[in-house]
Amino acid sequence: MLTYSFTHPDGREYCRAEYNETDHWLQATWKGVVTTPDGQHGAAAMVQQLHLSQVPYLLNDNSQVLGPWFDSVDWLQRIWAPQTERLGLRYVAHVLQPHTEDDLGLLLQHNPFAGKFELQFFSTLADAAMWLRDCQRLDAQRGLQAPPPRATTA
Fold first, then answer.
1. Which of 39, 54, 55, 110 is 20 to 30 A removed from 152 (C-alpha atoms)?
2. Contact at 8 Å (CB) between 19 and 48?
3. CB within 8 A of 80, min separation 6: which ones?
4. Residue ranges covered by each domain of the chain
5. Exposed/middle/buried for residue 59 (C-beta within 10 Å: 0-12, 13-18, 19+)
């Protein structure tokens, strides 16, 4: 299993990104306080993991994030999204941190990722996973199943 774990200098983990072999998607779980450098570092590592796993599905879980999420939309739009699009990312299920539904309205007014990948927001991990499974079923019906992950030494 491909797994990355990112920690603060004091050893507290703020992100774990891993290829979920059972569900065939990349899952990133963010927790605690995530600063802008933390977020950029973890998101950049996901690009590497997408390259290794060749998977078009990402479950991005912010349900355990405390405090404001890092100021990232511009960086994600300009740097991260084009890289992930080139690597074949097609679907992102984003689980919101609690009590941030109002922020979602602002983002949905102008989706900065339109044309790069399909992005859906969820309040629960279960709903996000169900949506990704639906995307996988639709892809399978269209003959767009993701290739199996490469054997790597991570």
1. 39
2. no
3. 43, 44, 47
4. 3-141
5. buried
d(C-alpha 136, C-alpha 140), whole Å = 6
The pTM score is 0.82
Q: Please give the chain's pLDDT, 154 residues, in tens.
A: 578 898 888 999 999 988 888 899 999 999 998 888 888 888 888 787 777 778 899 999 999 998 776 667 788 888 888 888 888 899 999 998 887 655 555 555 556 666 678 889 899 999 999 999 999 999 998 887 654 444 443 3
Strand order in the sheet with 57-65: 3-7, 13-20, 25-32, 57-65, 91-95, 118-122
The structure tokens listed for 56 are 């078009």
For 13, residues 6+ apart whose C-beta sits below 8 A from its C-beta are: 5, 6, 7, 31, 32
